[in-house]
Amino acid sequence: MMTMKIYFTRILLGICLVFSACGKQANLPESKPIPTVEKRSELSDVEKEFSRISALAAKGDPKSQTSLAHKYALGKGVEQNMNEAVRWYRVAGKQGEAEAQFNLGYMYYNGEGLPRDYAKAVQWFQKSAAQGNAGAQGSLGLMYDNGEGVPENNVEALRLYHLGAKNGDMYSQFNLGCIYDSGEMVPEDNAAAVKWFLKAAEGGHIDVPNYLGMMYDSGEGVPEDDVRAYAWWLIGVERGDDAPRNNMALLEEKLTAEELTAARKLADELLREMKADKVPENKN
Predict the structure, then answer these.
(1) In the chain, domain spans
(2) Which of 183, 265, 268, 270 could tie 188 with a disulfide, CB 3.0–4.6 Å?
(3) Which ranges of the chain have pLDDT less than 50?
(4) Short-list 149, 190, 141, CA closest to 167
(5) Phi-psi bin for 84: left (phi > 0), alpha (psi -120 to 50), beta?
(6) Contact between 102 and 93 (Cβ < 8 Å)
(7) 3-state secondary structure the chain
(8) What is the pLDDT, as a whole number, of residue 42?
(9) For position 140, what pLDDT does the model report?
(10) What's the pLDDT score for residue 60?
(11) How far apart are CA 44 and CA 184, in angstroms?
């Protein structure tokens, strides 16, 4: 996956079909007919959905073509086939379907289903980003940040990170938090770092609770609060990140039993509130 100088992001294989298509209809590939699901007395719901999407894709509907590509990529209703996924992403992408364009960029960047090609990844990310795809905006920002497929350009990287973050990309939000925390590209601003870390946490970012815990533990950008620090580390562990465990063990020696109970209750509250897309304000 992508790596950064001091921070990172992940480009995920998209499954969102909310983007509208534009442009002229591309010529549908004719060399490889869509495989039909083997006839049985009764098809499963997944197989029925695959057949329905296949028919719409064959008629030229770009969203259905993107959905069909997703199904091939994930093996849903059909045997996983990355070559077919690429083929249908390309057909939809040529018609202007932003999610398909984003996924083609992802595949070229990571060499998944295609030979790795940063220049082509940039081209597809640019097409998708121009239509407002947040993941493409953040991913393109990362490529400008690292000088991959384009000349390194921190100004453009920062602009694209902000676009992606404002459009809800949690990895752009996390990267902005790291940038403001480190003072790279911008003057150091811990309060801004916390702001972006909180937004990334709302989106479900796995690693960011560890960073929030450290900010509250050290009082950077927020008042020092060991209970809240422990609560964020609990959330990180629950999301699958083992990084907070050592800091949690150290803090357990400092906190009282009552404070540990309060931290666990706060972690539960934060998780509930984040599901509602709102992090509770620190009222302490």
Answers:
(1) 45-170, 197-275
(2) 183
(3) 1-31, 33, 37, 279-281, 283-284
(4) 141
(5) alpha
(6) no
(7) CCCCCCCCCCCCCCCCCCCCCCCCCCCCCCCCCCCCCCCCCCCCHHHHHHHHHHHHHHCCCHHHHHHHHHHHHHCCCCCCCHHHHHHHHHHHHHCCCHHHHHHHHHHHHHCCCCCCCHHHHHHHHHHHHHCCCHHHHHHHHHHHHHCCCCCCCHHHHHHHHHHHHHCCCHHHHHHHHHHHHHCCCCCCCHHHHHHHHHHHHHCCCCCHHHHHHHHHHHCCCCCCCHHHHHHHHHHHHHCCCCCCHHHHHHHHCCCCHHHHHHHHHHHHHHHHHHHCCCCCCCCC
(8) 74
(9) 98
(10) 95
(11) 53
Architecture of domain 45-170: Alpha Horseshoe (1.25)
Give the separation between CA 82 and CA 69, rounded to whole angstroms: 8
pLDDT at 121: 98
Per-residue pLDDT tens over the stretch 59-90: 999 999 999 999 999 999 899 999 999 999 99
The token pair that represents 133 in the structure block: 């795809």
pTM: 0.80
In angstroms, the CA 64 to CA 95 distance is 12
* Token duo for residue 180: 């403001």
User: What does the block give as tokens for 10?
Assistant: 């992940």
Question: So what's the pLDDT on residue 250?
Answer: 96
CA–CA gap between residue 253 and residue 81 (Å, rounded):
52
d(CA 80, CA 24): 29
- The whole-number pLDDT of residue 47 equals 85
